[in-house]
From TrEMBL:
Localization terms from the record: Membrane
EC number(s) reported in the record: 3.4.16.4
Record domain PASTA: where: 658-717
Species of provenance: Lysinibacillus contaminans
Protein name: serine-type D-Ala-D-Ala carboxypeptidase
Lineage: Bacteria, Bacillati, Bacillota, Bacilli, Bacillales
C-alpha cells in the first residue's frame, strides 16, 4: 500500500492566521468595550442615551398673587398660541387644504385680531418668508402677537375658517382686573432662553421683586425610543414633577381697590390732572388695603401715556402742604403747649429777614389757635413752633418717622428730607413746605393719630404660601414702630381734625359724609420748578387730604393727592373729595362698619350637614332663603362649604358635596368666588376667563361631567360690581377656602 505524503497547505495556513487574527482583534475589542464602556474616549451609554433617550419638559406654573380674601390678582391662565402651516406638503386632500392657501387674505383677516402688535404687512411677510435655502418652512409663528390669545379671540379666528391656521394651548400671565394697583403689582412677560425654552419673568413691581418666589421649577419626563422615535416596550419612564411657584397673598382688599380705581378714573377724566395718588390703610395693623396712582397702565397690554414707571407712593417725595399741620398740632398738644382759645395775630409772621403769610395773604386779624388750625393758617403753625421749640419739634418729626424709611416690604423706598439748617426752613416745615416726605410716610404717621398713639409700620404682603402643600412659608405680622404721642393726645388731635369739616371756618367741608364722621386735614402745596422757584395758580398746586373715619374708632385712614387738576373755577379740594368721599363711605360699608341708626342685616343660621341626605338638606336651605348647590351625584353629604355652623346673608350659596359625577350647574351670574369653590369641591377642570360674574360657559348646564376635558367659564365685570356681593362669604369663611 502506497503511503500518503503530507503536503503543507500555505493557502489554508494563511487564511487561518488571517481570520484567527481578526477573531482575536474582535474578541479583544469586545472585552475592552465590555470592561470600559468607552470608544474613542466617549461613553457608549451616553451616546446611546443621547440617541434613544428623550426628554420632555413639564412646565411649572408661576405662583399666583391674591388679595387678602383670596381673590386672584395675577395668575397663569389658559391661553393659545397661533401657528400657521405654510408648506403645501401638509395637504393630502386638495379639497381640504391644511396649509395657508391665500396668504394675502389670511394676513388681512388675522390683522383684525393681532393689531396693533402686528399689522397686515408684517403678518403677510411672516407667511411668505422663505428659509435661507430658499424653501418654505413647514410652519411659522407670530412672536408675542401670536401668544397669549384668549379663548374668545381663538374662537373668533376659528370661525373665519382660515386653512392652515392652528392653535396650541399655552399659559399666559393674566391680570383679570385690568388697571388695578398696577404700579404695585407690576407685570411679568415671557422670555425665550438660550436653550429655546420660554420662562415668565417679572419686569416690574411685586412681579419683579418677588420673581424668585413666584417662579417655579420645570419638571421633565424621560423615556427611551428606537431609531424611529417610537417608545420602546418595557422601557422605564421617569417623571420629575414640576414645582409650581409659591403664591403671594397681599393685604390689598380687591373691593376697596376697585372703589379707588373707579373714583380715580372718573376724576382723571373730568379734571385731567398731571398725576394722582391714593393709599387706603388699616390703622390698627398697618395693612395697606388699596394703593394706586395716575397715570397708570393695564398690565396685560402695558400701554400708557406720560407715565412714570415707579411707584410714586413709595419711591417719590413731595412737599406735603398743610397735611403736615396734623403733626405740628400733635407735637404741640403732646408737649402741653396747645392753648386752643389763646389768640395770635394772623396774616403774616416774620423771622429774621423772611416773612411768611397765610394763604389769603392778609389773615383774619387776631384769632384763636383752634380757629387758626381750622382755617389752615400758616402763621398759626409758626407761632406754635415758637412755643414748642425747634429741637423738640424736630424730635417729634423723627418720632413720627419723617426723614427715614418706613420699612414697608417694597423696594426703592425714598426717605424724604426734613430741612432744619436755617430757622425759616424749620418754620416752613410746620406747614409742609420745603421739607419733603412720601405718601407712605404720611400714612404711617397718621396711624399714630388714629390708633391712640401707637404707630404701625405699613405692609402689603400678608403671607407667602407653598402652592403645592398650602403651607405658609412666610407670614408678615403687624409691627408697632413706637408711640410718638399719648393716647389722650391722639384723641384730641382727632377731635380737632374732625372740626375742620364741621366748623364754620373749616377748610374740609367738602369731605363731610352723610353716614360717618370723618377727621382729616386738607393740603394745598406749591410745586417746586427745576429752577427752584414755585408754580403759582389754582391749576398749579398739589391738592390733598389725609383723613380717617369713623372719628371715635377709626377703621380706615386714607391719603389722596391730585396734582395740577384743571379746576375750571372750582375749589382745589373738590376733585380730592370726589375720590375720598365715595371710597371711604363704600369701603366702611364693605367692612360692615355700621353707620348710626342702621339696623344689622338679618342672617340665616346654618349647621353641619355632613352625613345627611343632600336632597333633603337642599329643600331645607332653599326654604330658609339660601342657595344650595349639590356637588356630585347626590345622596349622603360628605363635605360642605361653608363648613360647620355659620350665619349667612340671605341668597348666600351653600355647597353640599356628595359622591359621584357632578352635574354642571348654570353658572350665569355666579361670582368668581363661587365658581372657584365649585371647581375645588368637584375637582372638575374649570378654566375661568375674566373677572366679576359669569356670563357664559363652554358646556351646557345639566351636563354630567365624567372626564377631564376643560370647561371654560367666562366672567365679565358689570357696572354694579362695585356693590358689595351679598353672596360672598365672611372674612372668616374665606380663610377656609382651599382652592387648588
Amino acid at each position: 500500500m502506497k503511503k500518503k505524503r503530507f503536503r503543507f497547505q500555505w493557502g489554508a495556513f494563511l487564511l487561518l492566521i488571517f481570520y484567527g487574527g481578526l477573531f482575536f482583534l474582535l474578541f479583544t475589542r469586545m472585552v475592552t468595550l465590555q470592561a470600559t464602556g468607552e470608544v474613542e474616549g466617549q461613553a457608549l451609554a451616553a451616546k446611546a442615551a443621547a440617541k434613544y433617550q428623550k426628554e420632555s419638559a413639564i412646565t411649572a406654573n408661576r405662583g399666583k398673587i391674591y388679595d387678602t380674601n383670596g381673590k386672584v390678582i395675577a395668575e397663569d391662565t389658559l391661553s393659545y398660541r397661533l401657528i400657521a402651516v405654510v408648506n403645501e406638503s401638509a395637504t393630502t386632500n386638495p379639497e381640504k387644504p391644511r396649509h395657508v392657501v391665500d396668504a394675502k387674505r389670511t394676513a388681512e383677516i388675522l390683522a383684525e385680531y393681532l393689531e396693533p402688535e402686528m399689522d397686515e404687512e408684517a403678518i403677510y411677510s411672516r407667511l411668505t418668508k422663505l428659509k435661507s435655502d430658499g424653501k418654505k418652512p413647514y410652519q411659522v409663528e407670530f412672536g408675542s402677537a401670536g401668544r397669549g390669545i384668549s379663548h374668545e379671540i381663538m374662537n373668533k379666528i376659528k370661525e373665519e375658517n382660515l386653512p392652515g391656521i392652528l392653535f396650541v394651548s399655552d399659559l399666559k400671565r393674566y391680570y383679570p382686573n385690568g388697571v388695578f394697583a398696577s404700579h404695585l403689582i407690576g407685570f411679568a412677560l415671557k422670555e425665550e432662553n438660550e436653550d429655546g425654552t420660554v420662562t415668565t419673568k417679572g419686569k416690574m413691581g411685586l412681579e419683579k421683586t418677588y420673581d424668585e418666589v413666584l417662579t417655579g421649577e420645570n419638571g421633565k419626563v424621560e423615556y427611551q425610543t428606537d431609531a424611529f422615535r417610537y417608545l420602546l416596550p418595557n422601557s422605564e419612564k421617569m417623571i420629575t414633577p414640576a414645582k409650581d411657584g409659591d403664591d403671594i397673598y397681599l393685604t390689598l382688599d380687591k373691593t376697596i381697590q376697585s372703589f379707588v380705581e373707579d373714583a380715580m378714573t372718573r376724576v382723571e377724566k373730568e379734571y385731567n390732572p398731571e398725576s394722582m395718588s391714593v393709599v387706603v390703610a388699616d390703622p390698627k395693623t398697618g395693612k395697606i388695603l388699596a394703593m394706586s396712582q395716575r397715570p397708570t397702565f393695564n398690565p396685560d397690554t402695558r400701554s400708557s401715556e406720560n407715565m412714570k414707571w415707579l411707584n410714586e407712593v413709595i419711591e417719590e417725595t413731595i412737599e406735603p402742604g398743610s397735611t403736615m399741620k396734623t403733626f405740628t398740632l400733635a407735637s404741640a398738644i403732646d408737649t402741653g403747649k396747645w392753648a386752643p382759645n389763646t389768640k395770635f395775630k394772623s396774616g403774616q409772621y416774620t423771622i429774621l429777614d423772611r416773612t411768611i403769610r397765610d394763604h389769603n395773604q392778609v389773615g383774619w386779624g387776631p384769632i384763636t389757635y383752634l380757629e387758626g388750625f381750622q382755617r389752615s393758617s400758616n402763621t398759626a403753625m409758626a407761632n406754635l413752633l415758637k412755643l414748642i421749640g425747634d429741637d423738640v419739634f424736630l424730635d417729634y418729626l423723627g418720632r413720627f418717622g419723617f426723614g427715614q424709611k418706613t420699612g414697608i416690604d417694597l423696594p426703592n423706598e425714598a426717605t424724604g428730607t426734613i430741612l432744619s439748617q436755617y430757622p425759616i426752613q424749620r418754620v416752613t416745615t410746620t406747614y409742609g413746605q420745603g421739607s419733603t416726605v412720601t405718601p407712605i410716610q404720611l400714612i404711617q404717621a397718621m396711624t399714630a393719630i388714629a390708633n391712640d398713639g401707637k404707630m404701625m409700620q405699613p405692609y402689603v404682603i400678608d403671607r407667602i404660601v407653598d402652592s403645592s402643600t398650602g403651607d405658609v412659608i412666610e407670614q408678615h405680622e403687624p409691627i408697632e414702630k413706637g408711640q410718638p404721642i399719648s393716647a389722650d393726645t391722639a384723641k384730641q388731635v382727632r377731635e380737632i381734625l374732625a372740626s375742620t369739616l364741621t366748623s364754620e371756618f373749616g377748610t374740609a367741608k367738602h369731605f363731610v359724609l352723610e353716614e360717618y364722621h370723618v377727621a382729616g386735614k386738607t393740603g394745598t402745596a406749591q410745586i417746586p420748578k427745576a429752577n427752584g422757584a414755585y408754580s403759582w395758580g389754582n391749576d398749579e398746586f398739589l391738592y390733598s387730604f389725609l383723613g380717617m373715619a369713623p372719628v371715635d374708632d377709626p377703621q380706615l385712614i386714607m391719603y389722596v393727592s391730585v396734582t395740577k387738576p384743571k379746576l375750571k373755577g372750582k375749589q382745589g379740594s373738590i376733585p380730592v373729595s370726589e375720590i375720598f368721599n365715595p371710597v371711604m363711605q363704600n369701603s366702611l360699608k364693605h367692612l360692615n362698619i355700621n353707620p348710626d341708626d342702621v339696623k344689622a342685616v338679618d342672617r340665616v343660621a346654618t349647621q353641619d350637614y355632613t352625613g345627611r341626605n343632600a336632597e333633603a338638606v337642599q329643600v331645607e336651605l332653599a326654604n330658609d332663603g339660601l342657595q344650595p348647590v349639590i356637588v356630585g351625584g347626590g345622596g349622603e353629604i360628605i363635605e360642605q362649604y361653608p363648613k360647620g355652623e355659620h350665619k349667612l346673608m340671605e341668597s348666600s350659596f351653600v355647597f353640599l358635596k356628595t359622591a359621584g359625577n357632578s352635574t354642571l350647574p348654570n353658572f350665569t351670574d355666579w361670582s368668581l368666588r363661587n365658581v372657584l369653590v365649585f371647581k375645588m369641591m368637584s375637582g372638575l377642570n374649570i378654566e375661568v376667563v375674566g373677572e366679576g360674574f359669569a356670563v357664559s360657559q363652554s358646556a351646557s348646564a345639566g351636563t354630567v361631567i365624567s372626564d377631564s376635558a376643560p370647561i371654560v367659564v367666562k366672567l365679565e365685570t358689570p357696572a354694579e360690581s362695585l356693590i358689595p356681593d351679598v353672596e360672598a362669604p365672611s372674612e372668616g369663611e374665606i380663610e377656609n377656602i382651599e382652592i387648588e
